[in-house]
Amino acid sequence: MITRRQFLKVSAASMAALYASAHGKFLPRAFAQIPGGSLDPNDVTKYALPVVIPPAMPGAFGKNMDKYRIAVRQFEQHILPQSMNLPPTTVWSYGSI
Fold it and tell me: What is the pLDDT of residues 22-71, one digit of tens each?
């Protein structure tokens, strides 16, 4: 007797295989090399940098009113340890104007 979980796993795998065979361009893109290569996860020191805790967002508050003015910024930040000698990563952030 097949369980519901096994049935769903087999169905999902079958649908993925059917889709991949019908769309021949899918598989080469799925296994394409990333420009610049990728890192081995075992080479990255975990939890080497502290997590930044942002300050509270300033806003305008009153009766029946909670308003914030929020800006989006793009900047570069070291996400990976600097000891790896890699350039900063481009990130997006939300904050006050």
Answer: 665 555 666 677 777 788 888 888 888 788 888 888 877 767 777 888 89
Q: Is the pTM of this model over 0.70?
A: no
Question: Per this entry, what is the length of the chain?
Answer: 97
> 60 with 39: CB under 8 angstroms?
no
Longest dimension (CA), the chain: 62
User: Residue 15 — φ and ψ, nearest 5°?
Assistant: -65, -40
CA distance 79 to 91: 9
**Residue among 93, 49, 50, 48 nearest 72 (CA):** 93
As a whole number of angstroms, the distance between CA 22 and CA 16 comes to: 10
Q: Under DSSP, is residue 18 helix (H, G, I), strand (E, B) or coil?
A: helix
Residue 70 · residue 93 · CB < 8 Å: no
pLDDT of residue 11: 92
